[in-house]
Design a protein that fits this description.
With 344 residues, the protein is mainly alpha-helical. Belongs to the fatty acid desaturase type 1 family. AlkB subfamily. It is found in: Cell inner membrane. It is a multi-pass membrane protein. One of its GO terms (cellular component) is plasma membrane.
Length: 344
Amino acid sequence: MALFALASGLPAGLIALAALLGGGWVWLPFLYMAFLTVMLDQIIPLVAPEAPEGAEFPAADALLVALGLAHLCLLPLVVHAVAGQNGLSMGQRVLLFFGAGLWFGQVANPAAHELIHRGNRWMFRLGVAVYGSVLFGHHASAHRLVHHVHAATATDPNTARAGEGFWRFAPRAWTGSFRAGWQAESARQARRGGLHPYATYLGLGLGSLIAGAMIAGLPGVLVWAGLAAHVQLQLLLADYVQHYGLTRATLPDGRLEPVSDRHSWNAPQWYSSALMLNAPRHSDHHAHPARPYPALRLPGRDQAPRLPYPLPVCATLALSPRLWRRVMGPRLAEWQRQSGTDRG
């Protein structure tokens, strides 16, 4: 837990200092998120040990809550620093925008992801608030009710097809998950009644943009929306990378095989995994969605496919579809051959 807290919490403190003090401080969160994490992964080629089966982590949820609350505090602070009237130069504003945006996308997003999987309703609501603040509230429904049910099938909007470039995948995934989440929640509401969750999501999004306007007028709205788009881009990149080209087989009785370890790409690097709350151990999360993130397992190389580089690096490569296909095409084909899932 100490590593999770240090890796994910330290940049939050750096962002706060950068937003409040400006000057050279704006370099620190950007360098931490963009370079230091990857350097530590490479310099120290360590795979974090797995927790004993049944181990409990009473501090795990406390860290999630702290990160969720930090996000809700830092987002308006960063908007004020980037869009408001202060002594920051344009270059400093850009550095702060991207440094903070990387933390919102790579730390606050995994924290919100964990929060919406927790059974405690207040933790779930905090996760919804985090997603709502970046105008992506519907992910709280689509991820749980659609992605976890249909992952690695053509029915799941957030599973990338083999050969599909990210820039084609992203709009399909965004609109498809919005619609599929709406349909799933509407079916639930027909049985349970009450306020439709999408009303909450839309309300949180509108309230966030109003907060941006109150902070710094139109520039505040634009910066808030820009940060939200930056976060959404990173979330979609993570989905794209972690399920790229992997499909579930159809069984003799016509049903799809259950989701297993081989239907997610994983990454073993220690520091980026700690930063992202073990999100790169994606197979075990799909197998055990309620398992605490410190206890997630890393499947063996013969059980699940592994990414060639840390998850943030692979997400960056995916921005160039041609480069991505060059890197991942042979690896996907080899995994399909090895696991007997090559469809020819």
